[in-house]
Amino acid sequence: MNKLLVTMALSIFISSCGGGGGESGENNPPPQTTQSSGGVELGPVKGASVAIQALDGYTLVTSITDNSGFFKIDIDELKSAVDSYGSNLKFVKIISTGGIDIDPDDDGVIVESEQIEVKGNVKGIIPLNTLYQSKDYRINFISTALVDILGSEQNVSDEQISYIIKRLGISDINEDGKIDIDDITSYRMSEHNSTAETDLRDGFLEYIHDGNTESRKLFIEDLKYDVGFSRPLITKKDGYYEVNLSKTNKDNTMYYGIVADENHPSYQEYYGQPLSLNYGTAIFYQECSDDYGCYKLQKIFFYAEKYYLDYDYEPINDNYDEVQKQVKELDDMREKKKQAQKEIQKIKEKINVLVKVGEIFGGSSNGNP
């Protein structure tokens, strides 16, 4: 009898450990889905619809944020969608729409009465490999400004993104010795501080909450005017630098001037040609929009072995006032040119009317009375 009890107990123990069946246990683990985890922060935004898109707006996969503002993407599903898209993708956009900002002041304390409905969208641009590697990443109102500055641009590079991030005032958040897109995706609103967050929190964040797209657009244009995001592409050659200037919008116009040997720059339109800059010179450049006017005047100083962008050093005596004067004169000339073109058009219309009248009377005199 005791032997029987022992045998039964042993049988139950073995069965509970998964032995004998062959349908579960270590040899047959349950299937697992590989997922990529992201977050939407103004404060954390819960209940938002999230779309992963190609830069042209094509939606690859979608998700929804949970009560803590996090969402998950099935990596296999994403890879399949990218394959179906049929084009090489280095970056993708993440667009979050709607939801509730559960901690608008980012103090880490959730108070239900302070929560705000998000009527606009939150955006981010993310390397596709970041999603594939299941890294933890965030989009927020700083990444939204980055995407709004890039606009409809689809040929985006690491260097262009890094340049804009630096101009916005982001530091080395992840402490890897460089400032790049990873410092945006690593940014935590409740933990980190930056010039970008300070500047964007006053106004831009409100426009996202309210869904005020027109004011949001004007805010970004004013930011371009105050900061300037036109990117220089600089290559060091043997004894000189080669510079190409990149616009934030292909429909805008770029002007530049070169300072050498204390001479003042003479501004001219930039047509995309590479510029050669000798040591001891500087270049001033400015992007202008027909709709919004000219953005901030930017400058680079070239020395024997180094060059300095205007946000990297304390300003020195560089004829800046004279350049600003020339820029104003250039703006005035452009406005006069527009007015002159309008007057010319009016004169042409009058001439056309006179020609038609002449043809009518001329036809009457040569034909039947």
How does this model look, in words?
There is one protein chain. With 369 residues, the chain is an alpha+beta fold. Helix content is 36%, strand content 25%. It has 10 helices and 19 strands. The strands form 5 sheets. Strands 13, 14, 16, 17, 18 and 19 form a 6-stranded antiparallel sheet that branches. A 4-stranded antiparallel sheet has the order 4-3-6-9. It has a 3-stranded mixed sheet with strand order 5-1-10. Strand 3 and strand 4 form a beta hairpin. The longest helix has 47 residues, at 320-366. It is globular, with a radius of gyration of 30 Å. Mean pLDDT is 81; it is low at 1-26, 313-320 and 364-369.
Give me a quick take on this structure.
This protein is of the alpha+beta class and 369 residues long. It is built from ten helices and 19 strands. The chain is globular, with a radius of gyration of 30 Å.
**Alpha carbon gap, first and last residue:** 139 Å
> Quick one: overall form?
globular
Spans with pLDDT under 50 lasting ≥5 residues? 1-26, 313-320, 364-369
The whole-angstrom Rg is: 30 Å
The quaternary organization reads as single chain
Mean pLDDT: 81
Q: SS-based structural class?
A: alpha+beta
Order of helices and strands: HEEEEEHEEEEHEHHHHHHEEEEEEEEEH
Largest sheet: 6 strands, antiparallel
> Considering DSSP H and I runs of 4 or more, what fraction of the residues is helical?
25-40%
Q: How many strands appear in the DSSP assignment?
A: 19
How much strand?
15-25%
- Number of helical regions: 10
